[in-house]
Write a structure and sequence with these properties.
The chain is α/β, with parallel strands linked by helices. It has helices at 2-22, 48-60, 74-79, 125-128, 140-148, 160-168, 179-185, 204-207, 220-235, 238-246; strands spanning 25-29, 32-33, 37-39, 45-46, 64-68, 85-91, 101-102, 111-116, 132-136, 153-157, 174-178, 194-201, 211-215. The termini are far apart.
Length: 256
Amino acid sequence: MQKIAVLVFMLIVLSAGSAMAQAPLKIAIEGQYPPFNYVDSQGTPKGFEVDLAKQICAIIGRECKFVVLDWDGIITGLLARKVDMVMASMSITEERKQSVAFTKKYYEESGSYVTRKGSGMVISKEGLEGKRVGVQRSTTWSSYIENTYPGVDVVYYDDDNRGLLDLLAGRIDTYLAQSYFMNQWLKKPEAKELQISGDPVRDSQYIGEGIGIAVRKGDVELKKQLDEALATILKNGTYKKIASKYFNFDIYGFGM
């Protein structure tokens, strides 16, 4: 009788473990950051990171479930177990590594300033002195501006789209965000009066080691699985195939 009880207990434990292994992998995205991650008019998550995540999930044998979270609450959501990982163009920085763990990078980034055509804006310490510079709050770029140009009037936004619309309306003088995103945004008809100005921002002190997937520090096995899956898709050509749908340059290294 005792052996039967032990056997039943082991079957329950194994079943629970199997159920956990097959549970959907909840992935946080910002949902309004094309071409990286966004939600279309039908409410379907799309973009480079979404496609990449689906391939990763397939390799590790988990279903993807995308969860849209506001950017400034995205790490909090991860730590509160609302999601299992963050795949939302998050820079691997020393500051963030105090709270979460990161996989190896899945692309590099740089930053670009956008100004209105004919504004005469010069991107320099002197040129930005006293100017209103827009950035998304709690980002690599907000930290960069705050610490590099103390003389500017920093204007914070919840997302880049709102900041760029304010730039169009003349409420700010320039806006700083990720180069890839900026170049895509400038293809919109409403952006015809805007232009990239100055040199790309590539300060490793702020950009860090590239863009990685964030997980909780205790999820060591998940991090290992994600790193192995990334290595696989980089090696077998899947990464290049996905990236070529969205970019005509090498996004894994500095492509701009």
